Structures are given as structure tokens and as C-alpha cells.
Fold this protein.
Amino acid sequence: MKKQLLTLACLSPLAIGMASGASAPKKNKKVQERDLPNVVIIYADDLGYGDLECYGAKGVETPNVNRLASEGIRFTNTHTVAATSTPSRYSLLTGEYAWRKPGTDVAAGNAGMIIKPGQYTMADMFKHAGYHTSAFGKWHLGLGDKTGEQDWNAPLPASLGDLGFDYHYIMAATADRVPCVFIENGMVDNYDPSAPIEVSYKENFPGEPTGKDNPELLYNLKSSHGHDMAIVNGIGRIGYMKGGGKALWKDENIADSITTHAVDYIKAHKDVPFFMYFAPNDVHVPRFPHERFRGKSTMGFRGDAIAQFDWSVGEIMKTLEELGIADNTLVILSSDNGPVVDDGYDDQAEKLLGEHRPTGPYRGNKYSAYEGGTMVPAIVRWPKRIHASGESNVLMSQIDWMASLGSLIGAKMPKGSAPDSFNRLGNLLGTDATDRPWVVEQSSNHVLSIRTKDWKFIEANDGSKMITWGPKIETGNNKTPQLYRMEEDLSEKNDVAAQHPDEVFAMQTLLRKIRAGKAQLK
Ligand code: NG6
Ligand code: CA
């Protein structure tokens, strides 16, 4: 590859721009452009394996994602680490299985930082390799140094800047959790001094309405389960909140806000290598897409949110193309966990589903130990290196993306960092079709499964068969270990554990080794 020295000093700060409030890249003499690509990870929320047109979606068009797939590689056997957001994101960004680390379950909006500043993150990795680094959209990994003690009216004492991100414009947790404001570089964006912000996950603030007591105020979306605490923008939330004023988001504008900031960031950093973690809110609840996407699908707001997600992808790609940097930008598109249809709001998603199958052929959903919980779409495009467009059914886990990208950019990973992440760059770039020998999947109640190309093993657990607190979802729990033959039984219908005791034993032994951190990949 051509090696060229890039002197950042010659770039004028104005050229780099501050349009999105992003800080200008620091002058760093060590920064060399080794013809390395920009790296953009587009990480959707709750987008299922079957939710994109190029993965068989019905009733919604996703032309921008389809194009990405047709110009790159469409993966058909990619797994998240967990069936919910916080643990999946933790694992993606640290290369450590979340189940090794207490406190990585679905986080409240006032959780303190789950990744500690001393921990080596994917952002650190890119930053140390000379990249400018950024995060947009859903965070859900805690902010500030202490849970519940953040002062949202002042700069947060700890935020993404301490984890290697040079710039961030994020939501603290999810759209259904307070605080309902964007955070830019550790401070509430568009802060309104006339409406100081208070947040509690324990008790309401005197005089504030709640979804539970004032359902008549839920003028935008009613809740189907939970989501009955603070009311913001006519929608019930998880957690209590007071104030916010003009800083409060309007759900219909979330995709626009996130996408616009990301586009501005790309424009401002077109001349330096950048890493962007772009994490849209779509298609997580509350689904309340902008008017211009309403009716774009036959499925109501859930399908319309998929169309909105596709639009965001299109804006990012269009920007890269217009700036002439798309060819040398590695774009990875995926999701944080499987899909859920009714996740607590009365948005008619179930009624209007029609023939659409959010999990494709897979059983279970978000939260579940079945494949529907962790099987997700994955698309990789990098015209400069990936010429053959096509499809790959290589068995892949997101846990490996940190080490793989590290290898691509020649990162020096400190000892002990990304302990569960293996360099499988060839899988990602389509030059090596060797399957990962196994991947581990974590359900929402911490049941671990092992998936190989041929088998699926779910460890024994005596929890309930169905989620007990709202969504009508099979957990995958069973008092005895389950074993499925994935080649002939994609939808995990026939448990063959009793017929294959040796295989069950082998899987249990392997899982024990993995838990002990002693399972190496061959
Ligand atoms: C659940 C929420 C659900 C969603 C999920 C986390 C209720 C009733 N349900 O507890 O709506 O927020 O947590 O989703 O509160 S995730 O994709 O961020 O992991
Ligand atoms: Ca999610």
C-alpha cells in the first residue's frame, strides 16, 4: 500500500470546521496516513435479521441499505454478543464479553459510566492509531462517575471523552429512558438555564405528571406495558425527570438530529482519518418517526422507523460520496440485538406486521436465547479493498470486530485489552471464509449459548419459558440443556440433546473453558 505522510499542521482549523461543535483534530506528528480507511460502524437498535429489504423484509423498502449490500458483502451468519443493548455495546466497544463484567445489563439513564476510563476501548484504539474518533446517537453505557448522582446542569465529570472519543453527540441511554436530551461532549446540548434538569429512577418530582397517573397526557403514544413514569413529548418514559425546557428532544426529530450531526462531523473531518460510531435510535421504542416517513411502510411506525433508518444510512453514504471519500471508507452496518415487535408502546406494530418476519427464519426475539435474540444483519462495504460484492455465510461474532479492526489499522493493543476479541479481519473483508469455530450468545437473563456452524447449544436454566414482564417473547429457558441441528433446523424446533449426549457434553466442556477464559480459537 502506498504510504504517505500527512502533516496535520497544514490543515487549517477552518477547513476542519467546527460545524457540529466538534473539536478540531489535534496536531499529532506521529499521525501518518498509511492509506488507511475511515471506519464507520452503523449500529442500529433492535433491527432484526429480517428487517431489511435485502434480508427479505416485506412491506418496507430499504434502498440505501440494499445498495450498501450490493456494493459490499452481505453476511448471513453474524451474531451480537448479547440479546440486549448495553451488554452488546459494551462487548463491541471493549472486546470483552459483557457477561464477564457485573453491571453490564440494560442500563438506566442515570447509570454511571460502565466502561471505566482506564479500560481500553475501540475508540482508544483508533485514536492511538492516529484517527479522529466520534460517537453519535444511542450510548446506553452510562455517563458520569456515579450512578444517580449526575448533575445534568453542568459538564459531566466523566464521559466519552475519557473513553477515547474526541467528539460525541449522544443520548444517555435509550429514547424510552430519561433524561430525554442530547449530550454533546459531556454537556446537555441546547441547555436551557430556565429549566434545570433533575433525574431520578427512584421517585417522582412533586407536581410532575406521570404516564401512570395522567394517561390523558400521552398524546403522541400510549404505553402497552411499563413506560409509565415521566411524560416527555406526550410519551411515557422509564424514570422520572423534571425540567429540560428547550433541550428536550422531540422524538420525531431524533433521527434528523443524530444524522445531521454525523454528516457535519464527516464534512469537518474529511481530510483526516476518522472513526465514527454511528448508533441511530431506530428501530427502538418509542417508535415515533418523522412525518415524512409515516406511511412509507405497510407496518405502521415500526416499519416507518426502518425506512427512517435507511434514510440515515443514505445520508451518511451520500455525504461520503460527495466528499470523494466513500471509496476509502470502511462501512460496517449491523444491529445491537434481535428485534421485538411490541416493546411497551401501543404503536400497532403487532397488528400491522402482515407477512413481515422481523427475525427472518429464526426463533425467539430480542431478550431470547434462541437465535432471534442475537442473529443480526451485517453488511461491510469498502470499495477500495472489497471488490467482489456478494454474500458470506461465514460464522462471525461482533466480539471480534475490535481485534480485527485493530489489525487493519496496525494498532498496538495493550496487554490484557480486548481479551475476548480475536483478529478475524479476513472474515470481515471477505478474504477468509473460515468460520469462527464457535460464538457465544448471552440472553437477557444471562443464559449462555454456543453456536457453531452446525450446532446450537443452550445451557440449562430453570427460568420461565416466556418473558414475564411485558413482551410476548420466548426466553429459550429450559431446565435441561438444549441442542439443535442448525443445518437442518434453522428455527430451533427439534431439541436433539437426548440423542447426542456426547455433543452436549462437549459443548458444556467448551462453555466451561470459555467462561474460564481458556478457550483459544484454533
Ligand atoms: C426494557 C424496556 C424496553 C427496552 C429494553 C431495553 C420496559 C417495560 N421495557 O426493560 O422497552 O427499553 O428494556 O432495550 O421498560 S435495549 O435495546 O436498550 O436493550
Ligand atoms: Ca437494542
The pocket of calcium ion (ligand 2) is lined by residues 45-46, 85, 284, 336-337 (CB under 6 Å). The mean pLDDT is 94. DSSP finds nine helices and 19 strands in the chain. The longest strand covers residues 38-44.
